[in-house]
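so ive been stuck on this for like two days lol. basically i have the seq below and the ligand is pyridoxal-5'-phosphate, smiles is in there too. i just want the complex predicted, nothing fancy, no docking runs or whatever. if the output looks off dont worry ill sanity check it later, just need somthing to start from for the group meeting slides
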Amino acid sequence: MKNRPIDLRSDTFTKPSKEMLEAMMSAEVGDDVFDEDPTINKLQEKAAQLFGMESALFCPSGTMTNQIAINIHTQPGDEVICHQYSHIYNYEGGGMAFNSSCQAKLLGGKRGLLNVEEVEQNINPDDIHAARTSLLSLENTSNKGGGSCYELSSLADLSEVAKSRQLGFHLDGARLFNALVAKEQNCRDYGALFQTISICLSKGLGAPVGSLLLGDKTFIAKAKRVRKKFGGAMRQAGYLAAAGIYALDNNINRLQKDHDKAQELKNALEECSWVSHIDPVETNIVIFYLKPGKDQDLFLNILKEKNILAIGMGQGKLRFVTHLDTSSSEIEFCCEVLKKL
Ligand SMILES: Cc1ncc(COP(=O)(O)O)c(C=O)c1O
């Protein structure tokens, strides 16, 4: 029998563990549209408390939590400042335009991270010819930036700019827990800086479904209305929330193991003559580049034949993502395969 594939395409490919499934099976549930699902209520309270924020809303996906936040922070015709690599711009199906009639002001900045100078230069003047800049949205860790993370001091500076220029300040924290573990930061620092934070339970934390939007009570009351409009209000979804509670209780600190595995892959790639460059590895994402003339699809197929799955990002750029469903021995095997290619 063939072994299961070693799936390094993304940390979204994890499946719930036996213990997580047991927690799900024994969840108490109710109709969440009527606020009567005790497990969802517990998850929301737990997440809000963790970040020292007033309130939280359980949603089906990270895309939805981001899109709800954008919808509330902006008016039609407004401009959202975000990085050119950001998920909200690149990978949410044009949602910012479709759901909220907003446009993006895309900034550069190292590896998916924004800096104060560039943000300040790109806030539009109060002039009827210009779109109103109403939201500054960051992503931590940056997915397309290769799992890069912010220093807390940079976030504090960006928060100051947002406050002084009266911009909404949102964080797409789909992989925020990876950043927290890597930088030894804590949730409450983030709760104090951002107006809204989206955290995801179904990436590194290993739950099958779900994200939470965090904010103050007024914002989350509005978010509940928008979630309904977007079709994301759920009924007995406490079974899913139970997986989220299990994930928050058990799967945060172990993220360091995923970061160590990413370093192992990076070390192996450093020994490969066919690699031209590897981006710095800060968390669980490894981005590397094939030497010119090497065919990306051919490379992915060769890996696939060895039972290893990875993702090509075009023009010889490739990505491995480590997660809780890749064991140490599987990573060791991958490293051996890479070194022999
Ligand atoms: C940085 C980032 N934000 C948001 C999302 C969206 O999450 P979802 O797939 O749950 O919609 C993703 C998904 O990969 C992501 O990487």
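The chain has a mean pLDDT of 97. The domain at 254-340 is CATH 3.90.1150.10 (Aspartate Aminotransferase, domain 1).
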